[in-house]
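Box S2. Input/output pair 1.
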Amino acid sequence: MTSPSFVEMRRRNAQMILDVVRRKPGVSRADLSREVDLARATVSSIVDELIGLKILEESGSKTSLRGRKPIGLNFKPNSKTSIGISIEDNRAQISLCDLNGRQLASQQVVYKAIDLDGQAAIIKLLEQILRTHSDFRRIYAITLALPGPLHITGSDRQNKAAPDRFAPLVTMLEGHFGRKLALATNIEMAALAETHAEQAECEDELLAFVRIGHNLRVTFLQNNAFLNQFSQMGGNLGELIFPMQNATLARLWEPSDMSGVSINELAGEPMLLSNARKAGLAVETLDELVILASKKDPIAIDLLDLAADGVAYGLASLINIIGPSRLILAGYLPDNHGSFLPRADLTTRQLLKKTNNNAALIQPIIQKSVMDRGAESYGAALFGLSLENILPPLKGSQRKDREARNSKTS
């Protein structure tokens, strides 16, 4: 029986080989062996496997200095595709990318509930995307991103179980594709898409990625990796109590609740819309609420300012407790309401001055995500490739690999 450590080592060796072939098209097996510092037999075995998977191809002959003509190797990024599916309560986003992580398609479907009709709508969109851009035979990886947290049933993400309300969907999709799905959370997949899009090097800095959706969630990255020790805070951030200090809040909540409300009750999409309707606004979507604010509706402006203040309260808490040097905000509000990020940034710094004696020394960067609404599904498609060590490493990771190889030869 092959040990898990051997399988992992072989995957990492395959990633190094793919990295070199990407950078040096037409490289021979002999040159490849020297480049990755592995035995020729090991390299040939892995290369033969990648050729069998149609990820690499041989490219005729390549003239060498000795006059011989070894066969060159090329990477085939279009030979396979990876699917990422991001699920929310009333919508799904599906992305497709090639083996280089280049996005080929991203589309959304809206449904009333994740019942049989909702599942059928997801399958219909999947089949439409595959007919246009790929086919079932070329699918290399499938990842399903869900609202967290996931139930941990093993040591890796493929052994995490979906929340009970999503279990029928997982069973249906696995039956449709005839394989197990990799599971992940939407917040982590959005963060993965962000780092891939901007090739962010967060080797020495602690980065907090904050997503404002149905709830306020956060994940942390350092050295281009997620920090699992803070995963519990990721789900609890939106439950922080925001002190009740506003006349609009006083109109919306009962006197018994006047001690404060959670950040999720201020900035989470369902509650924000519910608050708007309680205040007399006829809105069904955040689009409508933001449009009203752009038309100077005082209640809409007040509600969105309160959402920004609630998020700022969470950001200030993160900075005081954990101390990230950079915070990235993602979600509909920072993307579409122009004053949301400036207000959240200003309020965060004001709160830091009140709560931290060293506030003058704390200058975190607070910025908007470079990704759009499809970040979660795109990140899920990338994650499927990363599980197989196909995803091209980030710049920081490439530098580490080179330094490690140089240290061997010095």
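Box S3. Input/output pair 2.
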Amino acid sequence: MHESERNCFYTLGALEGMILDKVNPGWKDDYFKEMFYVEKYFGTN
């Protein structure tokens, strides 16, 4: 993967974290229980 492609993922991850902070401020408390599945924290279930 080229550096520019990796930077895109970092930017998207940061944006996703910022959105989660707004819609579910407590998402970080559960993150280490189910890492890498942040879609579960958006409350769309």
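Caption for Box S3: Helices lie at 3-23, 27-31. The mean pLDDT is 76.
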